Amino acid sequence: MRRVYPNKDVCIGCHICEVACLTAHSASQDVVIAAKEEVASGLQPCKAVYDKGQISVALSCRHCDNPSCVSACISGALYKDQETGRTCYNEEQCVGCWSCLMACPYGAVRRNVTKGKIIKCDLCEGRDIPACVEACPNNALVYESR
Amino acid sequence: MLFKPISQNFSDFVIDRENDRCINCEVCVRQCSYEAHYWDDARQCVSHDHTKCVGCHRCEAFCPTGCLTIKKNPADFRDNALWTPTYMKHVYKQGDTGGILLSGMGSPANKPIYWDNLQLDASQVTNPSIDPLREPMELTTYLGSKPDQVSFEETPEGPKLTTKIGPQLKLNYPLMFSAMSFGSINLNLHKAMAMAATELGIAYNTGEGGLHPDLYKYGNNTIVQVASGRFGVHKDYLNAGSAVEIKIGQGAKPGIGGHLPGEKIDEEVSKTRMCPVGSDAISPAPHHDIYSIEDLLQLIYAIKESTEYKVPVSVKIAAVHNAPAIASGIVRAGADIVVIDGFRGGTGAAPTMIRDNVGIPMELALASVDNRLRDEGIRNHASLVVAGGVRCSADAIKAIALGADAVYIGTAALVSVGCTLCGRCYTGKCPWGIATNEARLKKRQNPEVAAKRLANLVRAWGHEIQEMLGGMGLNSIESLRGNRDKLRGLGLNETELDILGVKHAGR
Is pLDDT above 80 for B237? Predict the structure, then answer.
């Protein structure tokens, strides 16, 4: 399956992928409204760029073959879609126990404090290429099968 | 903010932030290496300081909401035809520092650009034009000394060339990437130039900073440069390339040497240049072993010996008043290629006064050097390459019609990967990741992306050159070389037309 792979050698730490992610998951699909209004009601990007020294890298769900988060999930909100191979998330079922946060070896699952639920990458359902990959100005994110 | 020298108060640019659209994402803060944008803790929002803006437009290009516009500072000094703001700001700056004014990139001064006063010819009715999409159109160029005459012998398979032709540098396009040293620009861009040159079948020039070990594999498309500092020069280096260039002068700063600030010398640059980390790398103004044409001859032949006469040797000079006589001496000293770098040529750092006031336009130098070499019957002994201020394929084709064999492109190449000519290369903080070796900044040039853009540029110019050649009824770049009948001057005086060797439009 195709996944989003970050390349730390060319990631320039601009954080534009976070903005793209936020907009792609917003109701308005408008960057200004998403960031100024929807964030207040709990909209959050599913990915985060981590910077340390000269290294930056954009982290999001790896959609692991054997996801620890799915094993850890107590409510069945996280599950593996056998057809697409994606690790899927049903927000309604999430109880906010944060078990998956502790289980994820990549730190790719994040808390949505406003909603009391988790948030994670869904590979931009409905888009051919995830928004972060499209927006990356330096080809530091690629969407491919490896 | 409150107490600043006057030089900083008269900023060149102002940052216009449309607050309704600003989402405080801090992309601008992270992109600006001059810290013009910052997170304002007191106001809890992104803010900016105009006086730090160098006008590179990086923030504008990266702002996800398009809320930023960098504008020229509208604050006007009282009109004065003599004392323009440029000169006043120079004086303020020198009052502060007591130092030489430094500049990056080629001269922006308003001086004649002869390309704009030359028009190309086209075929009509009597000599049919050629469609390069349907018929072959040759751009292949060979740089190197050509024999005075050739002899053949008859063999059963047909005539066979018996004249031994000296080493040639083969180019699929009459274009090359100029000398920009590793150090002045970073390894990512050197790699990108090497990759693009290899893909295109042209050459790039290492500049005077040596060749990084990772790039030896691109040697067939590399011209290795030997300059007065002799940085990174050793036997393997000389033999790594497909040509060797002796740099005597640079168009942006004729008569003076080079100075790579210590800040730009990291571990890799230091190893490649063979000089200590963090120490300034200073190239002297002259080569200390060249004080005459005879001395130059010795260096040319020392290089030819060490490369076993397998590659052409080039000599690069800045376009100065006596360029024709100097070029004649260079050819007689045994150079296979002569490079003339005009006063608009780029640089990573040059004293502003020298950049803007020394040297002559490449167009005039080219025409007069080509004339002189023809008059002396030695034009075929060396190829003529020009550099400095070629902005488009039309400039390049006009240079070839004036007598050049090939054209170096430096500034155009950098612009294709993002350079906005902000001219602060000497600070080592290039926000576009070009003229910097800072680990965080140089990553902004992804070699794969940059190589693709460079290759695209040369291919695009190649197509345009083919179209223009076809329009003139020519099917080979060789047919245009030195063919000044294909040029006409527009609005040039008699002296200019005479030097350029072209008729005025209408004649």
Answer: yes
- Does residue B447 carry a pLDDT above 90? yes
CA-nearest residue to A55 within chain B is B440
What's the whole-number mean pLDDT along residues B248-258?
93
Residue B250 Cα to chain centre, angstroms: 10
How much is the mean pLDDT over chain A?
Answer: 95
Alpha-carbon separation of residue B335 from B141, B163, B300, B403, B482 (angstroms):
18, 19, 7, 17, 20
| A11, A16, A138 ranked by CB distance to B64: nearest | A16
**The Cα angle at residue A81 between residues A78 and A84, in degrees rounded to 5:** 140
Domain boundaries, chain B: 6-99, 141-480
Q: Does B27 touch chain A (CB under 8 A)?
A: yes
Cα–Cα distance measured from residue B501 to residue B485, given in angstroms and rounded to the nearest whole number = 9
Across the interface, do B20 and A9 touch by the CB < 8 Å criterion?
no
Q: Identify the CA nearest to B222 among candidates B188, B248, B190.
A: B190
> Is the Cβ of B64 closer than 8 Å to some Cβ of chain A?
yes
Question: Which residues does B430 contact at the CB level (< 8 Å), separation at least 6?
Answer: B33, B56, B424, B436, B441
Q: Where are the domains of chain A?
A: 1-60+124-146, 62-120
CATH class for the domain made up of B6-99: alpha beta
CATH entry 3.30.450.20 includes domain A62-120: no
pLDDT of residue B81 exceeding 90, the answer is: yes
Backbone phi, psi, residue B235, to 5°:
-60, -45
Contact residues, chain B, for A140 at CB < 8 Å: 446
The angle formed by the CA atoms of residues B52, B53 and B58, to the nearest 5 degrees, is: 135
Per-residue pLDDT at B1: 55
Q: What average pLDDT does this structure show over B125-137?
A: 93
What is the CATH number that goes with domain B141-480? 3.20.20.70
Percent of chain B with pLDDT over 90: 93
Interface test mutation site (partner A, options B18, B30, B189, max chain A beta carbons within 10 A): B30
Predicted confidence (pLDDT) per residue in B149-190, tens digit: 999 999 999 999 999 999 999 999 999 999 999 999 999 999
Neighbouring C-beta atoms of residue B299, cutoff 10 Å? 19
Q: What pLDDT, on a 0 to 100 scale, did the predictor assign at position B260?
A: 86
Report the sign of the C-alpha dihedral through residues B410, B414, B416, B422, in that order. Answer: negative
A19: nearest CB among B25, B443, B444: B25
**Encoded amino acid at B112, one letter:** P
The CA distance from B392 to B389, in Å, is 9
Nearest CA in chain A to B29: A14
Cβ neighbors of B6 (< 8 A, separation 6 or more) are: B92
